[in-house]
Amino acid sequence: IHYRSLVGSFFTGGNERLRTDRTAEWVLSLSDPRLKFITQENQGSAAARNRGIAIAQGTYIALFDADDIWELTKLEKQAHFLDAHSSIGLVDTSVVLIDEAGKSTGKVVTSKAEGHVWKHLVQFQPVCSCDSTPLIRRECFDTVGLFDQDLMFLEDLDWWIRLASHYQFGAIKEPLVKYRQHSGSKSTNCQETLQAFHKIIEKAFESAPTELLYLRDRGYGRVNLYLAWKALSNKDYNQVKQFCTSAIAHYPQLQRSWEYTRLNLALELMRRFGDRTYEKLRSLTRTFRSFASG
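Below the sequence we write its predicted structure tokens.
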């Protein structure tokens, strides 16, 4: 990677992974003087990012989570974009989803990070493709602060919302990151995620104009629908029903959405045919999509 490509620091949240995936051994074998290798006890992703941001000296900051892959031109294209658009605080890219072996699943997630995105974020609508995609101006952290280390969930959403209240977002509609999905990843703690969202959204609306307060209920509706999907993955069907009920109570129009309809179809399939049949159907769909994408 050329240009001003090493714009921040690469960092990880804890030492346990370093002992098992040989990251430390690999990085220490590199002789590039621009690289700094820092470790700390695992204090969560927010603390790791804050440490890296504090140490980084570049004009731009890039986040890079474990197991994701950057295309070689990612940073160069994003730096050119920010150079040309002074009002943009963050530029995102699209991503290709890959499996644990690094093979494409055939699904591309297109970034929606364009313009004034505060309204989208507080409604729990996706903006940035994933945490490994954005390139951010260093000055943005001076303006809105660092990641909230008291949040164990959704600390990225909290920071995007704070950033969006001061800066516009930009996007390169090109998949410059490969996002690795893990079948054995830890299940989401639904209740703690909901509590984190409550803290974030109430803080975001403390100074919001009265005419925008309706967006708060939309946000609660969408986050509950999202958690209903997570509860379905956890096979907690009572919790699915609770989150669905709460979602509609906050935002009744969700009953007409495709996501709500699809959730109820998935729930019915699992009830009628069992978890294994449903997972086989999902796997078959992913295989077909991957084959169709070439």
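The first helix runs from residue 15 to 21.
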